[in-house]
TrEMBL record:
Keyword Transferase: no
BP GO annotations: maturation of SSU-rRNA from tricistronic rRNA transcript (SSU-rRNA, 5.8S rRNA, LSU-rRNA)
Biased composition (Acidic residues): 221-233
A cellular-component GO term for this protein: preribosome, small subunit precursor
Compartment(s) where it occurs, according to its Swiss-Prot or TrEMBL record: Nucleus, Nucleolus
Disordered, as annotated region: 195-233
A Pfam family assignment: Efg1
Alphabetized InterPro entries for the sequence: Efg1 (IPR019310), EFG1_rRNA-proc (IPR050786)
Record-given protein name: rRNA-processing protein EFG1
Domain of life of the organism encoding this protein: Eukaryota
Feature: compositional bias, Basic and acidic residues: 200-220
Keywords noted in UniProt: Coiled coil, Nucleus, rRNA processing
Length: 233
């Protein structure tokens, strides 16, 4: 009986230690991972199998917790870094949407060009809100400052197009985490939600989408002129 109580007490002590490490932050978790890896490497041949199983489970749990910890830190850093960019892009997207909606209502006819622009604007707004928190935000309306890295710009453009294509697909399927209608009501991604992610099949970082990027730039030039005209009205 006393032996059972000692084992139980030891197990509870180990669980408490793990709990404290889990709550202590990334550096302490990393140190504990290194300690366990060294222990298992040096003394695996002499440790009882029950101890080895326990330590391996602890190691697996700590690695998972470290991943979650690093992911949370990445999300927090991205939120702070890109907050203003996303805020202004949402504001610009809403202005474009209401301006186009007004033009459509005033025209009184089924203007295909205006409808296409309205759909593109809806996609852009859904992009801003549903863009993954774990990635560096790729601006929809980057500045025109000449880049010293043309290849980097090309890859960024490709990745933007991949996300826009995914947003359009999810919007048509009514499968966005935050729908367009919810965006109009001011909703954002939930705190526990990461946002959209590209599947391995969709994530072709080296794929060329030159024609679609060219079409998009031409559309932005037209919309930019419309915005200037509206500003001076």
């Amino acid at each position: 009986m006393a032996k059972f109580q000692r084992k139980r007490s030891k197990a509870l002590g180990s669980s408490l230690e793990m709990s404290q490490i889990m709550d202590a932050g990334a550096n302490k978790i990393k140190r504990r991972i290194r300690d366990l890896e060294r222990l298992l490497k040096k003394k695996k041949d002499i440790l009882p199998s029950t101890v080895i199983i326990e330590k391996e489970r602890n190691l697996q749990a700590l690695r998972l917790e470290l991943q979650n910890n690093e992911l949370k830190n990445k999300i927090k850093a991205n939120a702070k870094k890109y907050h203003m960019v996303r805020f202004f892009e949402k504001k610009k997207g809403l202005r474009k949407y209401h301006r186009l909606l007004k033009k459509i209502n005033e025209s009184g006819t089924e203007d295909k060009d205006l409808q296409e622009k309205l759909r593109a604007t809806k996609i852009e707004l859904c992009y801003v809100i549903n863009f993954p928190k774990t990635e560096k935000y790729i601006a929809l309306y980057p500045n025109d400052t000449p880049s010293t890295d043309p290849k980097g710009v090309e890859l960024t453009n490709i990745r933007r197009e991949q996300f826009l294509k995914l947003v359009a697909k999810k919007m048509d399927e009514n499968a966005l985490q935050v729908s367009f209608e919810e965006i109009l009501m001011g909703k954002k991604l939930d705190e526990d939600s990461i946002g959209l992610t590209l599947s391995p099949k969709e994530d072709h970082k080296d794929e060329s989408h030159a024609s679609s990027i060219k079409d998009r730039k031409e559309l932005e030039q037209v919309e930019g002129q419309d915005e200037k005209d509206d500003f001076f009205e």
